[in-house]
Amino acid sequence: MIDLIHQYWPNYLYSDGFNYTGLVVTLWLLVASIVAGFCLAVPLAIARASRNRYISGPVWFYTYVFRGTPLYVQLLLCYTGLYSLHFVHTHALLDQFFRNAMNCTLLAFTLNECAYATEIFAGSIRETAYGEIEAAQAYGMSKYTLYTRVILPSALRRALPSYSNEVILMLHATTLAFTATVPDILKVARDVNSATYATFQAYGIAAGLYAAIVFVLIWGFRRMETRLLAFLKPQGH
Questions:
Q1: Is the pLDDT of residue 237 over 60?
Q2: Could you say which residues form the signal peptide (predicted)?
Q3: Beta-carbon contacts of residue 142 (< 8 Å; ≥ 6 apart)
Q4: 128: how many CB neighbours lie within 10 A of its CB?
Q5: pTM, 2 dp
Q6: Do the domain assignments include residue 96?
Q7: Structural domain of residue 47, as residue ranges?
Q8: Confidence class of residue 21 from pLDDT cuts 50, 70 and 90?
Q9: What percent of the chain has pLDDT over 70?
Q10: Higher confidence at residue 2 or residue 114?
Q11: Separation of CA 186 from chain center
Q12: 203 lies in a domain?
């Protein structure tokens, strides 16, 4: 195993000499999909929590579809399905975008992540204590100020425990990227296994890298929860 690590550790961590691979690609997939999904999920969560069915209905349909179908199927649709459409491969920009495996993978991951994050944040928005809203309204806050200064900060903090689990699940979901020929950790492990037939060692290294990333994520989210959710703890007299 020591020889295997010594020979292939650059592939697992950052590069095969020509392209980025392994840990760098996995982290890029995770961070890019989480950041893009978060930015899309916040406004969609506000719409999802709306009492107006014409506003919340389309968002509900979107989250229902993406949470109700396997991510693997969504990835295949983005990677091969959309490109089979005539208007996609005949349009210059769309053709260039969907020819790139990384673009297709990030699109599928972002849309899936956004759907789950939207429901998590929308649930936290609905659970905002009405007393907080009444107090803000008593100060004469506009609806925009109410959301940006009271509802969203409170809801996003309370959503942290659930959202941290979703981020970890998204990390696990990045293992599907190898099916689109994206050279993530699992793709490297499969290539190493094919080259050496050292199955246990090849996949064992991959498992260790994923476990290390999860440990860092859990540690980081626990620190954030301790700091941002301190106001929920019972206060001493």
A1: no
A2: none
A3: none
A4: 18
A5: 0.92
A6: yes
A7: 24-185
A8: very high
A9: 95
A10: 114
A11: 18
A12: no
Is 165 inside any structural domain? yes
Residues 6+ apart with CB under 8 A from 121: 41, 42, 45, 155, 156, 159, 163
Q: How far apart are CA 206 and CA 204, in angstroms?
A: 5
User: What CATH number is attached to the domain comprising 71?
Assistant: 1.10.3720.10
Return the C-alpha torsion angle 40, 45, 46, 48, nearest 10: 120
Sign (positive/negative) of CA torsion 101, 107, 110, 112?
negative
Per-residue tokens: 232: 């929920």
Model pLDDT, residue 1: 63
Supply 172's token pair.
Answer: 């696990």
User: How far from 90 is each of 58, 82, 98, 180, 219, CA to CA, in Å?
Assistant: 29, 12, 11, 22, 47
Mean pLDDT for 167-189 is 94
Output the CA–CA distances (angstroms, integers) from residue 58 to 31, 68, 78, 116, 200, in the order listed.
Answer: 27, 15, 21, 15, 46
Residue environment code for 30-60, b if the CB has 16+ CB neighbours within 10 A, otherwise e: bebbbebbbebbbebbbbbbeeeeeebeebb
